[in-house]
Amino acid sequence: MPFAITLCFDPMSAVPIEGMWRKLASDGIDADRDQLGYAPHITLAIYPDETPLKRLRTALEDTSQNWEALPVNLCGLGAFPGDNTVLWAVPVVTPALLARHQAIQTALPDLKVHAHYRPGAWVPHVTLSGALPDPRPALRALLSSWEPVRGFLDRVELVRFRPVEVLYSSALGAALPQ
Description:
The chain has 178 residues and is α+β, with helices and mostly antiparallel strands. 30% of the residues lie in helices and 29% in strands.
């Protein structure tokens, strides 16, 4: 099972994201995220299952020890198109968010990170659906009640997935109100 390093949403801003997951599930469109059993998040990196866990954890602890909660605004919906489209919420990409991603890459330069999470290839996102052969019903369902989400990424975690197992979790320091 691969490993992921994630930034998790604070409990208040997680609520509307979870609501979108439940909407897709209750409409019979997609229950992937609703059934995953893991909090709304932005993934900073994914590493293959043979990656040394101790190395990942130590690097994450060292790198994130002075991180503060990061303000985040979800401003729209996006899609990773293909035969099986994945829908996602679009965060406003800030220098601070990019710096968190870069800090992880800098701390683990010799480890094989998934191609989509390499510097210059990473697209920050909050996954809303699993792979959909036709994303139109999901888009209709989500657009009918879409509102921007403002909140904080207030926790950093190291997880193994699927199923999701949290291997390390640390609350980030308080940030100034938005």
